[in-house]
Design brief:
The chain has 18 helices and 14 strands. It is of the alpha/beta class.
């Protein structure tokens, strides 16, 4: 088809304008956000990109957000995922922690899950039918928008009581002091996989090694669900092991000091096995955990995470300091435990930006972020993306909320 002179002139002008505009930051950002991708980033192109390194250093602040699948449509499509990545990049933040393990299912294809009788990928969000790989998409978006992508194994050692993993491996389940294998978690009957059991340890080691071998990420993270309620641990396997190792035959009370310490030591051994396996499979990767403040985490969930730091098992700790009072927030940041651990791992503070029924005022988010900086921590990770960007407290608008974030992060945080 031949073009007339006017058409040729217009086309030449448009191409010249596009070439010039592509040299400017504003146009590049417009091109990224203005045209939504409808398919995952090409694997061949992604493989040729420079491997990202973590930005949280002594000179670079961590500015992250947990990406939850709850109260959110972010997992429904690649376009939704890209919109979030673009917005976070625009706001001069630098990390996303997307959920990849939840309710006994993975949000990426896993042959290990199939091996143990579970679905290859979660059927939620159409993943089973559409053959999407959200983790590959997140990595591509991280490269595109210059964000660290840290997969978040949210449910730790918990699974729904009716999940394939629980049904097919009943010997893996921990029991509480009354003999029950489940408890209610937000309306879901939930069980603990017994981290003292060698088969459970083997499953998790295979799961994380498969993940870090398949996906090139700067870190992986487990959170407060890598734990055990102190009323659990009363299954025959664990009690017999306790008796064998301690010589004690009496049934211990849930809060008995020696029983707490023994279970905490078993969890530390499990974390050590997972951490070492991950780092052997992917040298240079960071192992991150996001616990509740200590000693509450130890007394209630046998999670002695300061011991993990002291032993060199974790590289980053994002402490969930979810407080709606500045006095209580300051009290946790002033913890002697945290002060002692500075310099031994990257210490980041998890800040609650709100929940759907309880939005956190933006001024509180601003004040807590400022206090984290005043105390000299390595940065913040907000829980979670929807409450940070969408949920509004009385008297707020979405624009006013976003303006607070822009004021907190007026310029990018880049690795020198």
């Amino acid at each position: 088809m031949r073009l007339n002179s006017k058409a040729r002139t217009f086309l030449s002008f448009f191409l010249l304008l596009l070439a010039f505009g592509a040299m400017t930051t504003g146009c590049r950002q417009w091109l990224r956000i203005g045209f939504k991708a409808s398919a995952p980033v090409d694997d061949g192109q992604a493989a040729q990109r420079k491997v990202r390194k973590r930005r949280a250093t002594t000179t670079t602040e961590m500015r992250g957000v947990w990406v939850s699948n709850v109260d959110s449509q972010v997992m429904d499509s690649f376009g939704n995922m890209e919109s979030l990545a673009a917005r976070i990049s625009q706001l001069n933040m630098n990390a996303l922690y997307p959920v990849v393990w939840n309710k006994g299912e993975t949000f990426y294809p896993s042959d290990v899950m199939v091996k143990y009788g579970a679905p290859k990928i979660s059927g939620r969000y159409g993943l089973g039918n559409l053959k999407r790989d959200p983790m590959a998409d997140w990595i591509g978006l991280g490269n595109q928008y210059d964000l660290d992508i840290v997969p978040w194994f949210e449910w730790g050692v918990k699974v729904p009581a009716d999940s394939p993993l629980a049904r097919k491996n009943p010997e893996w389940l921990s029991r509480d002091s009354s003999g029950k294998v489940s408890f209610d978690q937000d309306g879901t009957s939930t069980s603990y996989l017994n981290f003292a059991h060698p088969d459970v340890q083997k499953f998790y080691e295979e799961l994380v090694v498969e993940f870090v071998t398949k996906y090139e990420v700067p870190a992986i993270q487990f959170d407060d669900h890598l734990s055990l309620k102190n009323i659990f641990g009363y299954d025959d396997f664990t009690l017999n092991l306790y008796k064998k190792e301690t010589g004690k035959t009496a049934r211990p009370a849930p809060d008995a000091p020696e029983w707490l310490a023994w279970r905490a030591a078993k969890l530390t051994q499990f974390v050590s096995r997972i951490s070492r396996a991950v780092k052997a499979a992917r040298p240079g990767i960071k192992f991150s955990v996001s616990p509740n403040p200590y000693p509450w985490s130890y007394q209630n969930y046998v999670q002695d995470w300061p011991a993990w730091v002291e032993a060199g098992l974790v590289d980053e700790v994002v402490v969930q300091v979810y407080r709606d009072s500045m006095a209580r927030f300051q009290g946790e940041l002033s913890s002697p435990v945290l002060d002692k651990l500075k310099g031994k791992a990257s210490l980041v503070i998890g800040v609650l930006s709100g929940l759907k029924p309880e939005p956190m005022p933006a001024d509180m988010v601003r004040a807590q972020t400022a206090m984290v900086r005043d105390f000299g921590y390595a940065g913040v990770v907000y829980f979670f993306q929807e409450s940070l960007l969408q949920f509004t407290a009385p008297g707020e608008t979405i624009d006013s909320r976003l303006n607070v974030i822009r004021q907190l992060f007026p310029s990018p945080a880049r690795t020198p």
